[in-house]
Specification:
single chain; alpha+beta; BirA Bifunctional Protein, domain 2; elongated
Length: about 375
Protein backbone atom coordinates (compact mmCIF):
# COMPACT_ATOMS: atom_id res chain seq x y z
CA UNK A 1 0.00 0.00 0.00
CA UNK A 2 1.37 3.41 -0.96
CA UNK A 3 2.15 5.77 1.93
CA UNK A 4 2.35 9.54 2.04
CA UNK A 5 5.04 11.68 3.63
CA UNK A 6 6.37 15.16 2.92
CA UNK A 7 8.06 17.22 5.59
CA UNK A 8 10.26 20.31 5.59
CA UNK A 9 13.01 21.37 7.95
CA UNK A 10 15.60 24.12 8.12
CA UNK A 11 19.35 23.47 8.23
CA UNK A 12 20.54 25.91 10.92
CA UNK A 13 23.84 26.52 12.61
CA UNK A 14 22.29 26.91 16.05
CA UNK A 15 21.57 23.16 16.01
CA UNK A 16 25.13 22.37 14.96
CA UNK A 17 24.17 21.57 11.37
CA UNK A 18 26.01 22.45 8.18
CA UNK A 19 24.62 22.59 4.65
CA UNK A 20 27.87 21.13 3.30
CA UNK A 21 27.72 18.17 5.68
CA UNK A 22 24.06 17.59 4.94
CA UNK A 23 24.68 17.60 1.19
CA UNK A 24 27.65 15.22 1.53
CA UNK A 25 25.67 12.74 3.62
CA UNK A 26 22.57 12.73 1.40
CA UNK A 27 24.50 12.49 -1.87
CA UNK A 28 27.08 10.04 -0.53
CA UNK A 29 30.07 12.20 -1.51
CA UNK A 30 33.21 13.73 -0.02
CA UNK A 31 32.89 17.50 0.47
CA UNK A 32 35.07 20.03 2.27
CA UNK A 33 33.49 22.77 4.39
CA UNK A 34 35.60 25.88 3.77
CA UNK A 35 34.10 27.73 6.73
CA UNK A 36 35.15 25.16 9.32
CA UNK A 37 37.91 23.42 7.39
CA UNK A 38 36.36 20.01 8.01
CA UNK A 39 36.04 17.35 5.31
CA UNK A 40 32.83 15.34 5.33
CA UNK A 41 33.44 12.00 3.63
CA UNK A 42 30.37 9.83 3.04
CA UNK A 43 31.55 8.32 -0.22
CA UNK A 44 31.39 4.80 1.21
CA UNK A 45 27.83 4.98 2.44
CA UNK A 46 25.21 2.92 0.65
CA UNK A 47 21.57 3.44 -0.18
CA UNK A 48 22.01 6.31 -2.67
CA UNK A 49 20.19 5.44 -5.90
CA UNK A 50 20.59 8.81 -7.65
CA UNK A 51 21.80 12.35 -6.95
CA UNK A 52 21.83 15.50 -9.06
CA UNK A 53 21.62 19.29 -8.84
CA UNK A 54 18.76 21.03 -10.65
CA UNK A 55 19.15 24.75 -11.41
CA UNK A 56 16.82 27.33 -12.99
CA UNK A 57 17.43 28.45 -16.53
CA UNK A 58 20.15 31.11 -16.81
CA UNK A 59 21.71 30.23 -13.44
CA UNK A 60 25.47 30.31 -13.03
CA UNK A 61 27.24 27.10 -14.04
CA UNK A 62 29.19 27.01 -10.80
CA UNK A 63 25.96 26.30 -8.90
CA UNK A 64 25.85 22.84 -10.49
CA UNK A 65 28.92 21.91 -8.45
CA UNK A 66 27.76 20.57 -5.07
CA UNK A 67 30.80 21.68 -3.07
CA UNK A 68 30.81 25.19 -4.56
CA UNK A 69 27.05 25.58 -4.15
CA UNK A 70 26.79 24.82 -0.45
CA UNK A 71 30.04 26.53 0.49
CA UNK A 72 28.62 29.63 -1.19
CA UNK A 73 25.39 29.25 0.82
CA UNK A 74 27.41 28.88 4.06
CA UNK A 75 29.78 31.75 3.23
CA UNK A 76 26.96 34.24 2.72
CA UNK A 77 25.80 33.79 6.33
CA UNK A 78 27.49 35.58 9.22
CA UNK A 79 25.21 34.84 12.19
CA UNK A 80 25.91 31.92 14.49
CA UNK A 81 22.21 30.98 14.35
CA UNK A 82 21.97 31.43 10.57
CA UNK A 83 19.67 29.35 8.39
CA UNK A 84 21.63 27.98 5.44
CA UNK A 85 19.27 25.60 3.57
CA UNK A 86 15.85 23.99 3.54
CA UNK A 87 15.39 20.24 3.30
CA UNK A 88 12.31 18.48 1.91
CA UNK A 89 11.84 14.80 2.75
CA UNK A 90 9.46 12.86 0.52
CA UNK A 91 8.34 9.24 0.63
CA UNK A 92 8.29 7.64 -2.82
CA UNK A 93 5.75 4.99 -3.90
CA UNK A 94 7.40 1.59 -3.81
CA UNK A 95 4.94 0.36 -6.45
CA UNK A 96 6.91 2.28 -9.11
CA UNK A 97 10.27 1.21 -10.47
CA UNK A 98 13.48 3.22 -10.23
CA UNK A 99 13.05 5.15 -13.49
CA UNK A 100 9.43 6.00 -12.73
CA UNK A 101 10.32 7.30 -9.27
CA UNK A 102 13.12 9.44 -10.70
CA UNK A 103 10.80 10.95 -13.33
CA UNK A 104 8.20 11.66 -10.63
CA UNK A 105 10.71 13.49 -8.40
CA UNK A 106 12.15 15.51 -11.27
CA UNK A 107 8.71 16.64 -12.40
CA UNK A 108 7.64 17.73 -8.93
CA UNK A 109 10.93 19.47 -8.05
CA UNK A 110 11.02 21.33 -11.36
CA UNK A 111 7.45 22.60 -11.03
CA UNK A 112 7.49 23.75 -7.39
CA UNK A 113 11.13 24.56 -6.61
CA UNK A 114 13.34 25.11 -9.65
CA UNK A 115 10.78 27.19 -11.57
CA UNK A 116 10.52 29.47 -8.52
CA UNK A 117 14.26 30.26 -8.62
CA UNK A 118 15.60 27.72 -6.10
CA UNK A 119 18.57 25.44 -6.64
CA UNK A 120 17.56 21.87 -5.73
CA UNK A 121 20.08 19.23 -4.65
CA UNK A 122 18.17 15.95 -5.13
CA UNK A 123 19.21 12.61 -3.62
CA UNK A 124 17.04 9.49 -3.97
CA UNK A 125 17.64 6.72 -1.43
CA UNK A 126 16.60 3.08 -1.57
CA UNK A 127 16.00 0.96 1.56
CA UNK A 128 18.96 -0.82 3.12
CA UNK A 129 17.33 -3.98 4.39
CA UNK A 130 20.53 -5.21 6.03
CA UNK A 131 20.38 -2.15 8.32
CA UNK A 132 16.78 -2.73 9.33
CA UNK A 133 15.03 -0.53 6.77
CA UNK A 134 11.62 -1.47 5.49
CA UNK A 135 11.67 -2.83 1.90
CA UNK A 136 9.16 -0.12 1.02
CA UNK A 137 11.24 2.78 2.38
CA UNK A 138 12.06 4.52 -0.90
CA UNK A 139 12.45 8.25 -0.27
CA UNK A 140 14.04 11.43 -1.58
CA UNK A 141 15.95 14.27 0.10
CA UNK A 142 15.81 17.68 -1.59
CA UNK A 143 18.14 20.40 -0.28
CA UNK A 144 16.95 23.86 -1.38
CA UNK A 145 18.71 27.20 -1.31
CA UNK A 146 17.08 30.03 0.62
CA UNK A 147 18.18 32.54 -2.01
CA UNK A 148 17.23 32.74 -5.67
CA UNK A 149 19.76 31.68 -8.26
CA UNK A 150 21.03 34.22 -10.80
CA UNK A 151 23.60 34.18 -13.56
CA UNK A 152 26.13 35.54 -11.06
CA UNK A 153 25.40 33.02 -8.31
CA UNK A 154 22.98 33.41 -5.37
CA UNK A 155 21.18 36.64 -4.49
CA UNK A 156 22.39 38.54 -1.47
CA UNK A 157 18.90 38.70 0.09
CA UNK A 158 16.77 35.73 1.06
CA UNK A 159 13.29 35.13 -0.35
CA UNK A 160 11.11 35.26 2.75
CA UNK A 161 7.96 34.22 0.87
CA UNK A 162 9.29 30.67 0.70
CA UNK A 163 8.96 30.38 4.49
CA UNK A 164 5.17 30.67 4.53
CA UNK A 165 3.04 27.89 5.98
CA UNK A 166 0.50 28.27 3.17
CA UNK A 167 3.20 27.45 0.60
CA UNK A 168 4.16 24.32 2.52
CA UNK A 169 0.52 23.19 2.52
CA UNK A 170 0.43 23.74 -1.23
CA UNK A 171 3.53 21.57 -1.66
CA UNK A 172 2.04 18.81 0.46
CA UNK A 173 -1.26 18.78 -1.43
CA UNK A 174 0.47 18.91 -4.80
CA UNK A 175 2.82 16.03 -3.89
CA UNK A 176 -0.19 13.84 -3.17
CA UNK A 177 -1.66 14.74 -6.57
CA UNK A 178 1.62 13.97 -8.34
CA UNK A 179 1.87 10.57 -6.66
CA UNK A 180 -1.73 9.65 -7.44
CA UNK A 181 -1.32 10.67 -11.08
CA UNK A 182 1.83 8.54 -11.36
CA UNK A 183 0.17 5.55 -9.69
CA UNK A 184 -2.83 5.82 -12.00
CA UNK A 185 -0.63 6.31 -15.06
CA UNK A 186 1.24 3.06 -14.45
CA UNK A 187 -1.87 1.03 -13.59
CA UNK A 188 -1.80 0.93 -9.78
CA UNK A 189 -5.00 1.16 -7.74
CA UNK A 190 -3.43 2.49 -4.52
CA UNK A 191 -3.78 6.20 -3.72
CA UNK A 192 -2.35 8.55 -1.08
CA UNK A 193 -3.85 11.46 0.83
CA UNK A 194 -2.03 14.39 2.39
CA UNK A 195 -4.77 15.18 4.91
CA UNK A 196 -4.92 14.05 8.51
CA UNK A 197 -6.64 10.81 9.49
CA UNK A 198 -9.34 12.84 11.23
CA UNK A 199 -10.25 14.78 8.08
CA UNK A 200 -10.21 11.63 5.94
CA UNK A 201 -12.48 9.82 8.42
CA UNK A 202 -14.92 12.74 8.47
CA UNK A 203 -15.15 12.66 4.67
CA UNK A 204 -15.72 8.87 4.70
CA UNK A 205 -18.54 9.25 7.23
CA UNK A 206 -20.17 11.96 5.12
CA UNK A 207 -20.07 9.61 2.12
CA UNK A 208 -21.36 6.76 4.37
CA UNK A 209 -18.31 4.67 3.57
CA UNK A 210 -18.28 2.98 6.96
CA UNK A 211 -15.61 0.43 6.08
CA UNK A 212 -13.09 3.16 5.23
CA UNK A 213 -14.19 5.20 8.27
CA UNK A 214 -13.34 2.31 10.58
CA UNK A 215 -9.92 1.82 8.96
CA UNK A 216 -9.16 5.54 9.40
CA UNK A 217 -10.29 5.57 13.04
CA UNK A 218 -6.81 5.09 14.46
CA UNK A 219 -4.08 7.03 16.22
CA UNK A 220 -1.40 8.45 13.90
CA UNK A 221 2.02 6.87 14.24
CA UNK A 222 5.22 8.84 14.76
CA UNK A 223 8.34 8.87 12.60
CA UNK A 224 11.19 6.71 13.81
CA UNK A 225 14.47 8.02 12.43
CA UNK A 226 17.76 6.31 11.74
CA UNK A 227 19.29 7.22 15.12
CA UNK A 228 16.29 5.88 17.03
CA UNK A 229 16.38 2.59 15.09
CA UNK A 230 20.14 2.28 15.66
CA UNK A 231 19.75 2.83 19.41
CA UNK A 232 16.97 0.23 19.49
CA UNK A 233 19.08 -2.35 17.63
CA UNK A 234 21.94 -1.80 20.09
CA UNK A 235 19.58 -2.45 22.98
CA UNK A 236 20.19 0.94 24.59
CA UNK A 237 17.62 3.20 26.21
CA UNK A 238 18.08 6.93 25.41
CA UNK A 239 18.51 9.17 28.43
CA UNK A 240 16.24 12.20 28.73
CA UNK A 241 17.43 15.53 30.07
CA UNK A 242 16.12 18.98 30.90
CA UNK A 243 16.70 21.70 28.29
CA UNK A 244 16.26 25.44 27.95
CA UNK A 245 13.80 26.52 25.27
CA UNK A 246 13.31 30.02 23.94
CA UNK A 247 10.04 31.76 24.74
CA UNK A 248 8.30 33.32 21.72
CA UNK A 249 5.57 35.47 23.30
CA UNK A 250 4.94 38.76 25.02
CA UNK A 251 6.61 37.35 28.16
CA UNK A 252 9.95 37.00 26.37
CA UNK A 253 11.34 40.22 27.89
CA UNK A 254 10.86 38.90 31.42
CA UNK A 255 11.76 35.24 30.80
CA UNK A 256 13.56 34.75 27.48
CA UNK A 257 14.07 31.03 28.21
CA UNK A 258 12.07 28.35 29.99
CA UNK A 259 13.08 24.92 31.26
CA UNK A 260 11.53 21.94 29.50
CA UNK A 261 11.64 18.86 31.71
CA UNK A 262 11.82 15.97 29.27
CA UNK A 263 12.53 13.52 32.10
CA UNK A 264 8.91 13.88 33.26
CA UNK A 265 7.28 13.54 29.84
CA UNK A 266 9.47 11.01 28.00
CA UNK A 267 8.40 7.38 28.29
CA UNK A 268 11.10 5.39 26.54
CA UNK A 269 12.48 5.62 23.03
CA UNK A 270 10.61 6.56 19.86
CA UNK A 271 10.54 2.89 18.87
CA UNK A 272 8.80 1.95 22.12
CA UNK A 273 6.44 4.89 21.78
CA UNK A 274 5.51 3.94 18.23
CA UNK A 275 4.99 0.28 19.22
CA UNK A 276 2.57 1.41 21.90
CA UNK A 277 0.60 3.39 19.33
CA UNK A 278 0.47 0.35 17.03
CA UNK A 279 -0.72 -1.82 19.93
CA UNK A 280 -3.51 0.61 20.79
CA UNK A 281 -4.61 0.74 17.15
CA UNK A 282 -4.74 -3.06 17.01
CA UNK A 283 -6.77 -3.19 20.21
CA UNK A 284 -9.20 -0.60 18.86
CA UNK A 285 -9.64 -2.54 15.62
CA UNK A 286 -10.11 -5.72 17.65
CA UNK A 287 -12.96 -4.07 19.54
CA UNK A 288 -14.55 -3.17 16.20
CA UNK A 289 -14.27 -6.79 15.04
CA UNK A 290 -15.80 -8.06 18.28
CA UNK A 291 -18.69 -5.63 17.94
CA UNK A 292 -19.28 -6.67 14.33
CA UNK A 293 -19.20 -10.38 15.14
CA UNK A 294 -21.74 -9.92 17.93
CA UNK A 295 -23.94 -7.82 15.67
CA UNK A 296 -23.83 -10.44 12.92
CA UNK A 297 -24.71 -13.19 15.41
CA UNK A 298 -27.66 -11.10 16.60
CA UNK A 299 -28.80 -10.57 13.01
CA UNK A 300 -28.59 -14.32 12.36
CA UNK A 301 -30.73 -15.06 15.42
CA UNK A 302 -33.30 -12.51 14.28
CA UNK A 303 -33.32 -13.97 10.79
CA UNK A 304 -33.89 -17.48 12.12
CA UNK A 305 -36.66 -16.24 14.39
CA UNK A 306 -38.49 -14.32 11.68
CA UNK A 307 -37.89 -17.18 9.26
CA UNK A 308 -39.76 -19.56 11.57
CA UNK A 309 -42.61 -17.08 11.89
CA UNK A 310 -42.78 -16.77 8.13
CA UNK A 311 -42.85 -20.54 7.69
CA UNK A 312 -45.65 -20.81 10.27
CA UNK A 313 -47.56 -18.08 8.45
CA UNK A 314 -47.22 -19.94 5.14
CA UNK A 315 -48.36 -23.17 6.82
CA UNK A 316 -51.46 -21.45 8.20
CA UNK A 317 -52.25 -20.04 4.78
CA UNK A 318 -51.92 -23.45 3.15
CA UNK A 319 -54.11 -25.02 5.82
CA UNK A 320 -56.76 -22.36 5.32
CA UNK A 321 -56.66 -22.83 1.56
CA UNK A 322 -56.98 -26.60 1.92
CA UNK A 323 -59.96 -26.24 4.24
CA UNK A 324 -61.56 -23.86 1.77
CA UNK A 325 -61.11 -26.39 -1.04
CA UNK A 326 -62.50 -29.21 1.04
CA UNK A 327 -65.57 -27.13 1.81
CA UNK A 328 -66.09 -26.80 -1.90
CA UNK A 329 -66.16 -30.51 -2.38
CA UNK A 330 -69.66 -31.68 -3.26
CA UNK A 331 -70.92 -35.07 -3.95
CA UNK A 332 -73.76 -35.94 -6.23
CA UNK A 333 -76.07 -38.48 -4.72
CA UNK A 334 -78.33 -40.60 -6.82
CA UNK A 335 -81.43 -42.05 -5.12
CA UNK A 336 -81.52 -45.81 -5.45
CA UNK A 337 -77.95 -45.97 -6.56
CA UNK A 338 -74.79 -46.47 -4.52
CA UNK A 339 -73.07 -43.44 -3.00
CA UNK A 340 -70.36 -42.52 -5.49
CA UNK A 341 -67.90 -39.63 -5.60
CA UNK A 342 -67.86 -37.66 -8.79
CA UNK A 343 -64.17 -36.96 -8.45
CA UNK A 344 -61.30 -39.30 -8.12
CA UNK A 345 -58.29 -38.66 -5.92
CA UNK A 346 -56.27 -37.67 -8.98
CA UNK A 347 -58.82 -35.00 -9.88
CA UNK A 348 -58.69 -33.59 -6.34
CA UNK A 349 -54.90 -33.40 -6.49
CA UNK A 350 -55.10 -31.63 -9.86
CA UNK A 351 -57.56 -29.03 -8.54
CA UNK A 352 -55.35 -28.38 -5.49
CA UNK A 353 -52.30 -27.70 -7.72
CA UNK A 354 -54.37 -25.44 -9.95
CA UNK A 355 -55.53 -23.45 -6.94
CA UNK A 356 -51.99 -22.91 -5.56
CA UNK A 357 -50.68 -21.85 -8.97
CA UNK A 358 -53.42 -19.29 -9.26
CA UNK A 359 -52.60 -17.99 -5.78
CA UNK A 360 -48.91 -17.48 -6.75
CA UNK A 361 -49.75 -15.66 -9.97
CA UNK A 362 -52.17 -13.29 -8.26
CA UNK A 363 -49.71 -12.66 -5.44
CA UNK A 364 -47.02 -11.69 -7.96
CA UNK A 365 -49.39 -9.28 -9.73
CA UNK A 366 -50.32 -7.61 -6.46
CA UNK A 367 -54.05 -8.38 -6.66
CA UNK A 368 -56.30 -9.94 -4.07
CA UNK A 369 -58.22 -13.05 -5.00
CA UNK A 370 -61.90 -12.37 -5.17
CA UNK A 371 -64.83 -14.74 -5.40
CA UNK A 372 -65.28 -18.22 -4.11
CA UNK A 373 -63.47 -21.28 -5.35
CA UNK A 374 -65.22 -24.52 -5.97
CA UNK A 375 -63.55 -27.74 -6.77
CA UNK A 376 -66.53 -28.75 -8.89
CA UNK A 377 -67.68 -26.57 -11.74
CA UNK A 378 -71.30 -25.62 -11.35
CA UNK A 379 -73.61 -26.44 -14.17
Amino acid sequence: MASYHLSAQIIRRSAGHSAVAAAAYRAGEKLKDERTGRTHDYSKRGGVAHSEIMCPEGAAECLKNREILWNMAEGMENRKDAQTAREINMALPHELNEKQRLALVREFVTEHFVNQGMVADVAIHYPQIEKGDSPQNHHAHVLLTLRQATRFGLRTTKTREWNSTALLKTWRESWADYQNNALGKYGHKDRVDHRTLKDQKQEAEEKKDWKRAVVLDREPEIHVGAKARQISRMGKVPQSYDALKAVYSSKRQDTPYRTRSYTKTDKGSRVVWNNRIITRNRQRFGRYLTHWSRQQARFRRHAMHYGKIRKQSHARKRLGATQKILKGLSFKLSFGRSLQSTLSLRAIDYRLRYYYQGQKKERGQGRKRSGDFSLFPTT
